[in-house]
Amino acid sequence: MNNEVTEVNAENKVSRVTLSTLIGTLKRFIVVILIATVLVASLSFAYVSFLTIETYSASAKFYVSNQAQSSATMDNSTLNAASNVTADCVELIRVSDTMMSNIVDDKELDTLLGMDAQSAKNYIKSHVSASKSGEDSRIFVITVNTPNKAYTAEIITALKESVPSELVSVL
User: How many C-beta neighbours within 10 Å does residue 89 have?
Assistant: First the structure.
């Protein structure tokens, strides 16, 4: 087997490129290749170490059911109603200042965060998201993302304990 490539250039001269020619070219530029590799690795390390912010995330899932339903089976209208209530719950978590203020006050999150109550409420609202688990689902998810592991844990714990009773009082 012949390890060479034949090329005809514009001047109709035939030039041959062999594997040994390619290796020889790489050897001549080995210093440049190594410097470029070290430079890219150093820049990547600097970016990851100094310019990215570590974020901690915690989630809690909530199941919405109709407590007034006495039988063990549920009909389609009950399931649809629970699905609609789930959408309402998600929206209330996103926009309800009163609910978030109650949670901050009840769980003393302002003290934990070292902020006044209004700042703590705004901080939590900016770091909390809520979404339905699926289009017709009766499950919704609350997620907390903060740069502080302790804050993330305390906030999600407070929400898990308070959100069900807060939503029942509003709905």
Answer: 23
Within 29-115, where are the H helices? 30-46, 76-95, 97-107, 109-113
pLDDT for 104-150, tens place per residue?
A: 888 888 888 888 988 988 898 889 999 888 777 788 899 999 988 98
Is the separation of the CB atoms in 142 and 124 below 8 Å? no
Distance of alpha carbon 108 from alpha carbon 145, whole angstroms = 19
Are the beta carbons of 138 and 82 closer than 8 angstroms?
yes
Element (H, E) at 53: none
Please tell me the pTM assigned to this model: 0.63
104 and 117 in contact (C-beta within 8 Å)?
A: yes
pLDDT digits (tens, 9 = 90+) for 43-69: 999 988 888 888 899 999 988 876 655
- Residue 132: name the closest of 57, 77, 62 by CA: 62
